[in-house]
Amino acid sequence: MMKVHFIGAGQMVEAIVRAAVNNGKLRGGDISIEDIDPARVSLLTGKYGVAASKSLAGADLVVIAVRPQDNLGAVAKSIVDRASDDVIVVSIVAGVTLAHLDTLLGAGRPVARVIPNTLTDTGYGFSGVVLNERVRPDDIQDFLESFGKVLYLEERMLDIFTGFAIAGPNYIYYFIESLTDAGVLAGLPRAQATAVVMENLVGAVEMLKRSQLHPRQLLDINNSPAGVGMHGLYELNNSDFAAGLQRSVLAAVKRTTQLANE
Ligand SMILES: NC(=O)c1ccc[n+]([C@@H]2O[C@H](COP(=O)([O-])OP(=O)(O)OC[C@H]3O[C@@H](n4cnc5c(N)ncnc54)[C@H](OP(=O)(O)O)[C@@H]3O)[C@@H](O)[C@H]2O)c1
After folding, report:
1. Both 251 and 175 in a single domain?
2. Both 149 and 247 in a single domain?
3. How far is the CA of 66 from the centre of ligand 1 (A)?
4. What is the per-residue pLDDT across 27-85, written as a single tens digit (0 to 9) for each?
5. Most buried of 21, 49, 50, 193, CB within 10 angstroms?
6. Does ligand 1 come within 6 angstroms of the Cβ of 17?
7. Is 70 a pocket residue for ligand 1 (Cβ < 6 Å)?
8. Cβ neighbours for 169, distance < 8 A, ≥ 6 positions apart
9. Which of 5, 6, 7, 12 for a ligand 1 pocket mutation test, highest count of atoms within 8 Å of Cβ?
10. Beta pairing partners, 130
11. Which DSSP state fits 107?
12. How confident is the model at residue 173 (pLDDT cuts 50, 70, 90)?
């Protein structure tokens, strides 16, 4: 197993460590952390058996996990001072480009930019990954797969990926809430409406996978002439549903780019 050191031990690192340790892909003993907040260090060492350390000796990967507004220059300098040139630096800091990381770390280091998904505990969810020319996918695949699935991207796609995929569970949670409310509005008890929506959601995804049909084809199969479903869909077509959802994604993508430039 590879040894991973995290600089910054906030919410995202906890989500990664919790998933990786619980699914057995990393052992607590293979992970070390540091954070300027001692409370975060003692919380994570206590909960997941990771080590508190400021040494990078033996680390295969060093993950920069501070916020974009934190002192990234100081973090980069501390890596340059402590890690040999061949240690892979993984940055999960939103909006900080490979070119900027090269400036901070000095060109010539292997660097990966990762936008981690937030469904880490489930094994679902893609993390978006961009590698510089000194990192091969095999070098970090095991680490990345310890907290979800991996999508390699061109760097220019990363903001789109963030607004669409990383914000993606929000759209699903909101859809689930809205559809459940519709069942309650129509008269079903909330617990039953929730159970039906969850089952339909998972089942619909499974139907798409098994049938290999386009959603439109399954809609066609499900909706007989002048039937119940077709009447429901007619009303949905009259709403702003599709365009509203699409505008929402475009707004999230735009905001990602704005934040990167601030
Ligand atoms: N949360 C998400 O959904 C998500 C998704 C994708 C990517 N990201 C990226 O992941 C990164 C971390 O996000 P987060 O939500 O985990 O933030 P967070 O909870 O605020 O964690 C950042 C941690 O880093 C610590 N820190 C700051 N400067 C440091 C330094 N120089 N050395 C060591 N530790 C330092 C902070 O301590 P203090 O609080 O005491 O300053 C804090 O505990 C961000 O760059 C974000 O863009 C987050």
Report:
1. yes
2. no
3. 4
4. 999 999 999 999 999 999 999 999 999 999 999 999 999 998 899 999 999 999 999 99
5. 50
6. no
7. yes
8. 118, 119, 125
9. 12
10. 113
11. T
12. very high
- Residue nearest atom 17 in ligand 1 by C-alpha distance: 10
Same domain, 68 and 155: yes
Q: Is 133 helix (H, G, I), strand (E, B) or coil?
A: coil
The answer, yes or no, to whether any atom of ligand 1 lies below 6 A from the CB of 115, is yes
Domain boundary among 163, 189, 213: 163
pLDDT surpassing 90 at residue 261 = no
Question: Which domain, by its residues, includes 187?
Answer: 168-261
Instruction: Give every strand in the sheet of 31-34, ordered side by side.
Output: 51-52, 31-34, 4-7, 61-64, 88-91, 111-115, 126-131, 149-152
According to the model, what pLDDT value does residue 107 have? Answer: 83
Binding site membership of 65 for ligand 1 (Cβ less than 6 Å): yes
- Distance from the alpha carbon of residue 86 to the mean position of ligand 1, in angstroms: 24
Is pLDDT above 90 for 22? yes
Q: Which two tokens stand for residue 259?
A: 């934040």
The rounded Å distance from CA 150 to ligand 1 centre is: 21
